[in-house]
TrEMBL record:
Taxonomic classification: Eukaryota, Viridiplantae, Streptophyta, Embryophyta, Tracheophyta
Principal cellular location given in the protein's record: membrane
The entry's keywords: 2Fe-2S, Chloroplast, Iron, Iron-sulfur, Membrane, Metal-binding, Oxidoreductase, Plastid, Transit peptide, Transmembrane, Transmembrane helix
Species, as recorded: Xanthoceras sorbifolium
Domain Rieske per the UniProt entry, residue ranges: 133-243
Annotated stretches, region: Disordered: 97-122
Cross-referenced Gene3D superfamilies: Naphthalene 1,2-dioxygenase Alpha Subunit, Chain A, domain 1, Rieske [2Fe-2S] iron-sulphur domain
Name this protein carries in UniProt: Rieske domain-containing protein
Residue ranges with Low complexity bias: 97-109
Protein's cellular compartments: Membrane; Plastid, Chloroplast
Pfam families, alphabetized: PaO, Rieske
Length: 592
């Protein structure tokens, strides 16, 4: 038998030997995982509750990609068995170094080994997208006088303030009468939500309190169950309205059993917070990938923002460099990890936050680490107490559309929050979003062409900097079959909307300004100022033209003419400023 085995080995081709080696590697590493997870620390303008453990079974090794050219790092990890809701050992994901040339099997003139598929284990627990809390909007951007229409997870909802219960309510955005949108309605003088179509009124529980067309002495049809609006469970946490996307009565008190993700720093009064929200014309998956990817910042946002200090030796103009990223835990609830001095956590489906301690803040660059040598003890202690948190809430809206609510919470240098108007900081933050918006929209279209389930085959991600992105895709594949569950309805197919013209794609007014109270107020004020300047210009010209030369001194006439010219020029400059910062600001990478 031994002789036969030797003869078989001698007769084997190099390709067969190589394939055999990969098979043996796979068998020896049966507990290996195909992905790392990394953390992203974008700083838009300025730039922990433990996860529950769930039993995880890894059935086969998975690799990112292989090419027959120079060897790349292989992905490996150590694993431990998880017990549901029981703290225990966690997984640590790392990247091993490339094998030395002496131990590398030659791949010359040999096709690469077959790439193992990233399969979903059907025995694993599946993520239920309709049994989670979703953030809707920051309270600071909601007007209590009017209802607000929003879409989350493909569901049209209306958010309104119930002054009788002194709380925010979330209803299905359809009147039970003829399905007219309640978001087009009003809050009546009794504090009820009134449909603008036929005047039906609803209280905070969704009960119909008035049907004007029903006779007062007739049947009390407004008390029928079919006359009630569909009310979703809702709560305010971290100064945001959250809702539970299920109107079944069994979830009426779901807040007593399950709460939205809690971030201690966001409820700490010693932390000042900066908020911004924007509707994004690409999907939740691509949005979250982008948030988790720090390596794109010096390139996609060149000249707009910086994170971290540049490398000592630059390989290009932008200063890209290797990033050391490690994921420490991944389960159905998300993952946590580290990126150098930063800790990060993704709590499925929407919440991602990154916190630094200690941190020093200077200009628009984050500088980390201990204070410089020579710093006195009092100042050193002050720096050590400084904490900063970057938070991101990535909300699935519909296929090809998402909403991003993000900001910063910090317990130092809060004085500038009261000096710099919020809308000015939003202008800078929107430039960051615009600088890679078109790239990501097109990227999503290409991903859909190959199919989300084939993402790991279409994309080549060999470095640590993509670890969180790969980890998120693995989480999505493992617990949700590689895509969002939109439920049964018009979005169940997941088809993306067509690509609009670039100017419409990157429009700021409908994606942000109308949804932001600060920017909306500034927009109205600046437009009013523009009209005032135009009036001053016209009036000055009229007075100078209508008055006889002898009635006004030459100096006064010249002053009026100058005022007219200055007023007109200022109005045109202001119009350009308004358009560029509140409507459309293109970012051309070829010219940066």
């Amino acid at each position: 038998m031994t002789t036969n085995f030797k003869n078989i080995v001698k007769a084997a081709t190099p390709h067969q030997l190589q394939t055999t080696k990969y098979s043996l590697q796979a068998a020896a590493n049966q507990s290996a995982m195909e992905a790392l997870i990394a953390s992203y620390v974008p700083s838009f303008f300025y730039i922990p509750k433990p996860l529950h453990d769930h039993k995880t079974h890894v059935t086969k090794p998975n690799f990112i990609n292989f090419h027959q050219s120079s060897p790349i790092p292989s992905w490996s990890f150590s694993s431990s068995t998880y017990k549901k809701n029981t703290p225990g050992p966690f997984k640590v994901f790392t990247i091993s170094s490339p094998p030395s040339s002496s131990s590398t099997v030659s791949t010359e003139n040999t096709p690469p080994p077959p790439e193992p598929e990233l399969e979903t284990d059907n025995k694993e627990e599946k993520f239920d997208w309709f049994s989670e809390w979703y953030p809707v909007m920051p309270v600071c951007d909601l007007d209590k006088r009017v209802p607000h229409g929003k879409k989350v997870l493909g569901i049209d909802i209306v958010v309104w303030w119930d002054k009788n219960e002194n709380s925010w309510k979330v209803f299905d955005d359809a009147c039970p009468h003829r399905l007219a949108p309640l978001s087009d309605g009003r809050i009546d003088k009794l504090g009820r939500l009134q449909c603008a179509y036929h005047g039906w009124c609803f209280n905070g529980s969704g009960d119909c309190k008035l049907i004007p067309q029903a006779p007062l002495d007739g049947p009390q049809v407004h008390t029928f169950k079919k006359a009630c609006a569909r009310a979703y469970p809702s709560v305010v946490q971290h100064e945001m309205v959250w809702f539970w996307p299920n109107t079944d009565p069994e979830y009426k008190d779901i807040i007593t059993k399950k709460k939205p993700p809690f971030i201690p720093e966001m409820d700490d009064p010693s932390f000042s917070k900066f908020w911004i929200n924007r509707d994004i014309p690409y999907g939740y998956e691509v949005l979250l990938e982008n948030i988790l990817d720090p390596a794109h910042v010096p390139y996609a946002h060149y000249g707009v923002m910086e994170i971290d200090q540049p490398p000592k030796v630059k390989v290009d103009r932008e200063g890209g460099k290797p990033l050391d990223i490690v994921v420490e835990q991944l389960d159905i609830n998300g993952f946590s990890g580290k990126h150098l001095w930063d800790s990060a956590k993704f709590v499925a489906p929407c919440t991602y936050y990154n916190y630094n301690d200690p941190v020093a803040f200077q200009s628009n660059i984050l500088l980390h680490g201990p204070p410089p040598a020579g710093t006195d003890h009092k100042k050193k202690k002050l720096v050590e107490q400084q904490r900063m948190l970057l938070f991101f809430f990535c909300i699935p809206v519909s296929p090809g559309n998402s909403r991003l609510i993000w900001g910063i919470a910090k317990n130092f240098n809060s004085w500038n929050d009261n000096i710099i108007p919020r809308w000015i900081r939003h202008i800078v933050s929107n430039i960051v979003v615009d600088s890679d918006l078109h790239l990501l929209h097109i990227e999503e279209q290409k991903i859909m062409e190959v199919g989300p389930a084939n993402w790991h085959k279409a994309c080549f991600v060999p470095t640590k900097s993509d670890a969180f992105v790969v980890g998120f895709r693995r989480w999505l594949n493992k617990y949700s079959d590689g895509q969002i569950n939109w439920g049964v309805g018009k979005f169940s197919s997941g088809t993306l909307p067509p690509t609009p013209p670039r100017q419409q794609l990157m429009d700021r007014y409908w994606s942000h300004v109308v949804n932001c109270r600060s920017c909306s107020c500034a927009y109205k004020s600046l437009n009013a100022l523009q009209v005032v300047l135009q009036v001053i210009s016209i009036v000055s010209i009229g007075i100078a033209a209508a008055t006889k030369q002898s009635a006004i001194p030459a100096i006064a006439r010249t002053a009026m003419a100058s005022m007219a010219v200055i007023g007109f020029a200022a109005s045109r400059l202001l119009a350009h400023f308004i358009y560029k910062n509140f409507h459309y600001h293109d970012y051309d990478h070829t010219l940066h």
